[in-house]
Amino acid sequence: MPSITDVLQMxxxxxxxxxxxxxxxxxxxxxxxxxxxxxxxVCTCLxxxxxxxxxxxxxxxxxxxxxxxxIKENLGINLKGWPKGIPFQSxxxxxxLNTLLKxxxxxxxxxxxxxxxxPHQREEYSTQLTxxxxxxxxxxxx
Length: 142
Description:
Elements: H1 4-8, H2 12-25, H3 30-33, H4 36-55, H5 67-75, E1 77-80, H6 97-109, E2 113-116, H7 119-134
Antiparallel strand pairs: 1-2
Helix pairs in contact: 2-4, 4-6, 5-7
């Protein structure tokens, strides 16, 4: 008899994260869900799973340091609706519960979401990156 990890074709920790995400999204066990570490994981899972869905590749994760080149320029994908007042960084770097809840809510209600850039948007963005490079700005970080 195959195990659940075989049937779902996922590792046990990924199944656990998805179950935590489901519990949070359905409003169950809210006391546990409002802890900072859980919210960090939920936000990270929401962002990465939506990115993987839109580009149809399961091995991709967000590269926050090189987002402008790794995601926007190379994949032609952008993120719309990131909440004002929240720095664009990994949710695991955010430690304020209210900030994480605000981010989770925008991801949950769809006001913050991934989208495919149009060919014109990609060309325009590539031109902006080239200009920034010419000015000596660091675009790719180690």
